[in-house]
Structure formats: structure tokens, C-alpha cells
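SAMPLE LOG
Freezer: B-3
Tube label: C17
Construct: single chain, 250 aa
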Amino acid sequence: MTLTEHAASYVAIQQATGLSFADQARLLTSYAIHAEAQGDVFIQSATVLDWASQASSPHQRIVRLRVVRGFAKYLHAEDERHDVPHPDAMGRRTRHRPAPHLLSTDQIRQIMAAALELPAVSSTTPHAIHTLIGLLAATGMRRSEATSLRIRDLTEDGIKVRNTKSATSRLLPLHPSVKCALDAWLGIRGPGAPDDPLFILSSGRPVCPEYLTNTFIKLARNLGLRGGPGTPGPRLHDLRHSFAATALAR
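STRUCTURE (predicted):
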């Protein structure tokens, strides 16, 4: 089996236990493609570190290493020719969970308005990002839940959320204003099959969580709501914190 095939099998086993494992699946696919491009048949520590070092931050490098280490230990148990990289090969994890940054209604509106001014303003992408940010702010959904929605998940009773952190599903009621916004988005998006992604870019590809996060940070920086890399400020996940704080205050 190739590393790509091994990775697919490993992901299937993890998901069969009830785990979502979506982020790990993306990383393992990326690693396997990189390793096979180097001619690797077995996991090689040097290749893992080379791939992990391409991440955008020290924390993400450690995350990449941790994900592949789990995969490597699984394969090493069957075939010792697979290396298991040292757990501290990319440094020790010292990252602390950042304090929540609660966004005001005006700040959320500013970010949503700025999304509509993204390049190619007449295309689908600005409206997709605008609607997604509004949906997260109005419902407290996680980014992975929102970007995984399918057209069929929109029902008369609300949104059927399937890709939850606990690998369960739930029905999320919608405020009439949110339903109107989603109806408007569907008009911009255009027709699609029930199983097609609800949110797509101008290219027709689904909006991935990483793209949404990076775009949100860029918009917040352009508005002066946060500084450059390494400085504190609002994150996409803070929309969830802000929703929870507002709900508790009611």
C-alpha cells in the first residue's frame, strides 16, 4: 500500500469510532502527498519534519508533527520500517489558549461589510464569506460545522448540523433574519444538488475552514481590530464566544 492508501485506511478506522477526524484527515493527506513526491514508501522522520516545518506558525508545526506521529505509531506497530518521529522534534508545545476577545455588534457588522469588499466584489466569494461570518455570529456554530453544511441541511425548522465536534448531529433553530440572509445567499449561490456544499467560492470549490479563518484575520487587521502576526486580537472562534456571552446576558 502507498502512504496515501495507508492514511485513508487509518482515517477510516478513526472515524469508525465516532471521531470527526476531518482536520487530521486533511493533514495526513497533505503529508502523504508530500512524502510520496519525495519517493518515500515508509514514513521517514526527515520527511515528516520537512513537511511540518512548512506550516505557518510554531504551533501549527507541532500540530502537524503530533498528527503524523499518531499515524506513524499505528503503522510502526505492523511494520518497524516506518519511523516514529521524536515528539519534541519541532519543539515543546508551550502555546497557551488565548483569552476570548468579545466582539461588539458594531465590530461584527464592520467585518461583514468589509467581507463584501473583498477582491472580485461581483463574484460569489465575498458574499460567501459575508454570510458565513454572519451565520457564525448569529448561531455560535463552529467553523467546521458551518463550512461542512450541505444544501439539504437547510430545512423549514432550521439547520441540520452534522459535522459536530462530538460526531453527532443536531437541529439548530434559526432567527427569521438569519433565514432571510441564507435565502439571499442561495439566490447568489445558484442552484445545486442537495448534497452539494452550501457555501462555495467563485471557483466552485467549497469554503474550507482555514480559508475562512485566514480571511477573517485579514479583514480584522485591515479594520484595525488586531495587529500583525503574534499580536492579540479577535479570531474567528471569538464569534462563538461573543454569541455565548450575548446569550448569557439576555
